[in-house]
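Hi W., the zinc ion complex you wanted:
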Amino acid sequence: MSDAKEPADSGTRRAFLKNVAVAGVATGLGSVTGDVFAQTGSAASPTGVAAKPPTRATLDANTAYANFLSFDDGKDFEDARRGLVAKLPDPVKIPGRDGVYAWDLEQFAFVKGGPENNAPPTVNPSLWRNAKLNMNHGLFEVVDGIWQVRGYDLSVMSIIRGEKGWLVVDPLTTEEVSSYVWKNLVVPHLGDRPITHVIYTHSHADHYGGVRGIVSEDDLKSGKVAIVAPAGFVEAAVGENIIAGNAMGRRATYMYGNLLPRSPIGIVDGGLGKTGSNATMTLAIPTQYAEKTGQKLMLDGVELVVLMAPESEAPSEFMFYLPKFRAFCAAEDSVHTLHNLYTLRGAKVRDALLWSKYLQAALDMFGNDMQVLFASHHWPTWGNDRIVPFLSAQRDMYRYLHDQTMRLANSGYTPREIGDATRLPDSLAKHWYCRSYYGTVYHNAVAQYNLRLGFFDGVPANLHRLTPVDSGKRYVEFMGGAASVLKKAQASFDKGDYRWVAEVVNHVVFAEPDNIAAKHLLADTYEQLGYQSESASWRNFYLTGAMELRNGVHRVPIGSPQSPDVIRAMPLDMFLDFLGVRLDGKKAAGKSLSFNLVLTDTNEKYLVGVENSVLHYSKDRTSDTADASLTMSRSDLNNVMLGDTTVHSLVIAGKAKIDGNSQKLGEFVTWLDNFDFFFNIVTP
Ligand SMILES: [Zn+2]
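Structure:
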């Protein structure tokens, strides 16, 4: 199918990490493509330190899950396969960049079976069921006139037949994958018609990154293809990548299990799909926006009725109804899992009250009419008699988490108490589509507290706590020293009291980061917690933590974390804001500086100043008394942002000009931090 090789070289690792950083930031996805870590379906360890088998406590916990849920209900398996038109032949390996597979479903071939519970003992049986469903792949008919490509990325591409050509909804994550499935599945089976519109349902990269794989720059320039997106799309799509980008990218490697082997002791699924594809992410700027609920868009003869959903699953998002097909596109606001009200990679908390109201609006506006519901992850739901309960349960699930959290908060409960006390009622919890494959009841409840009340729980002791190292040292001393703590912790471990062991032994690890026994016990604990987790995000977080405790942080070289399209689309204000985030307050203390930044091709100018260890700027302004002036083109500046060149090299090449005190400008650069992607997480 391709002659792409299993990757090994550092270029490969760079490509991988580039993807991790970009995708990780925007959507939290990414994938292992290297042989950096062993990939095995056996019990061999990814870490050099042997992975442990599940304990009795873990087996019991997973059995309790299995007993609560109805594995004889095979409807999801039917739906996930319904309407299959064609599929890529096995083994599914889609070529990417630099000889690296952009998509390799074969790595997950160990995940197989139907609705019956055949979970390995190291995987939560409910998560295993979800992992099996996400193995379905192919081109599927939703109804006559709407198709979906599923199983070749974390996300789903939908294709709608217009009068002259195709409307494509959410063109996957990378151009290599979207182009490959278009050429090998869509065109051969649906016909070679032009794409007239691409619709982005929301601002996460798994829903726009593949756009250039199916539309050319010429078609964009000539207006042959229109790009439709919800209002606020560009700022949201670009913005989420920048200010907290490095921290999000690193944490995303935990959440998505990018560094783990694909195996029953590693990653088995991503919750929304297997994982993200790994290749080139692109962005074409929208040419048309959905702005208002009730707005009707006529696109290539197909009417869309808009339902705006800002600040729900993404800052910029919309759903739409297609009267002609009696079909509702729920974007990512109603999928076959409890989604995240807070994503563990880190992001602003999402508002479940708003989210729930959007789903109510969907029912109010289209609930009587819709005959099929499709979304941008997972499989569709057919039949009004099934869609209405599905949407209603999803509406209630989000609203319940919000309302019960605030009920308890108003009664004086604090976040951890609320998280522990909150359970979905059985009338919701028994639905497979309300299970916690991605978000969890616990962290979503805590998030809603955080949304309304912030980080502080109101207990004075928690107002100004010591740092993890400082408190760790004191805890360990008070508890009689590390050896004594570990002895007691081992006894708690043997009883399966893992949450407690994690809390206590974490103090030892932060007090004594070289204490191997402590790190191993904590790793063993995280591992059991991972084996028990229904949420793919939690599992991946725990197992990656265990791996790094056992093996240390595996630093692989990384290139620029940003996609060139995203850099090009970035407003200069955002670039300067990020420069401000990079300014080291201590290094800049007592210093002051001002400079003009003049961009010749975009006619933008800024007066930038540094004082009080802060960077500030004024747009459309320059000053004759500034220390220096830097004149260059925006396109050259983009290359600087991508790390492909430096201002210094551009000056030498005559492409940038510095007037005034160039030395001072040079000094400014030394005040800027360069962030280390692989900062420690599980150790100080
Ligand atoms: Zn998505």
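The CA atoms of residues 119 and 125 lie 5 Å apart.

W.
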